[in-house]
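Quick one, T. Sequence first:
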Amino acid sequence: MSKIAQKPILFLFLLIFFLSGCSYFGIPLDNLPWVSDDPIYFKDSFEVQSGGWTTFDDGMGIAGYDQGRFRLKASIENYQFWSVPGLNFKDTMVVVRATKIDGPDNNLFGLICRYQNEANYYAFVIGSDGYYGIFKVIDGQQTLIDQKHMDFSNRINQGNAENQIQAVCKEDQLILLVNGEQLLFVTDDALIQGDVGLIVGNFSSPGTDILFDNFIVAKP
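Structure tokens:
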């Protein structure tokens, strides 16, 4: 089981952080080659329990296979829970579809890359209320990268609607795309390789419950 207590990130209304000089085009999940070949490092449709993924159900959270998808539920406030398949990559593009089935819209969920242990990783997250961010955890300390707070985008489908989340970890470049549109580009070189994975979290209200589907790790 993997989990770590985190202080809630304040949601403040400021101007959206505009990026310049570098852009990354989102790839629709339907257009990615589901079967094989060199660009695909790893894939999981979660239709069968293929092993590797961290699973648990302890009253604080749930991670496991459910309805042909992978479920992560965070049952207590101000906590984040995740699951990783036990792999190791340097540069990756990770894509997943995610749908909230229960819990508050003031939440976070998304993708992990360069996960080394529960105290060191990058996370690319959105909320069901339309906010997004990229943060790093180094020696157990969580900070947003080049953001004072999580920003808002109309590109994120709110409530229980499905979202396609895409994370690019290429050299020191970290890019978050949602539903095919780049929302955030930052640079950071604290972590250079590690596992990939899924993450969910609560702020003051517990119960965030997310189903993930069609997880793909590809060459960026």
